[in-house]
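Risk register update: the risk of archive-format incompatibility is retired. Evidence:
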Amino acid sequence: MHTSQMRITRDLPFASTRLYAVVAIFVALDVAVPWLCHVIHPMAGPTLLPMFFFVLLAGLLFGWRAGVLVGIITPLLSHAMTGMPVIAVLPRVLIEGTVYGLAAGLLYHNGGFRAMWATVGAVVLGRLATIALLFVLSAGSVNAAAEVWQALQIGWPGIIAQIVLIPCIALVAGRLMDDA
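Archived output:
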């Protein structure tokens, strides 16, 4: 297989202790980095979307189970430890992150998508899940698409960085793990 087409094949099962070790590391990073971003500047989190980096990376590197667990645990633990995300956006971040991890893992490991397209698909599906959640929670009183559009206007630098950087990081990390 050509090196540009190498595939990461570490879809870890729930019975694997390695899965939980990986999830613990990714959750720790996923709590620390967004906190640091918010310390640097209050808008760094909503602009750079650092919490979703490690969720997407977990899904690509270790499969949908790792992505889902990081997507669920991170916002809950981060909220408990740092107050971020704030309670008003916690359900949205929880659903969006979980869908990101699930979709990245499934699209890459099970769907045969390249890392970049799995990342793009995960971001799109996560945003669509957010629109659906906001629509259900608002019972029509809030324009869900407008709220997501506003978040996109603020977070576009983070989305571009996710689509460009995460597949590259995943492929390099996969090669390093293969060489280890």
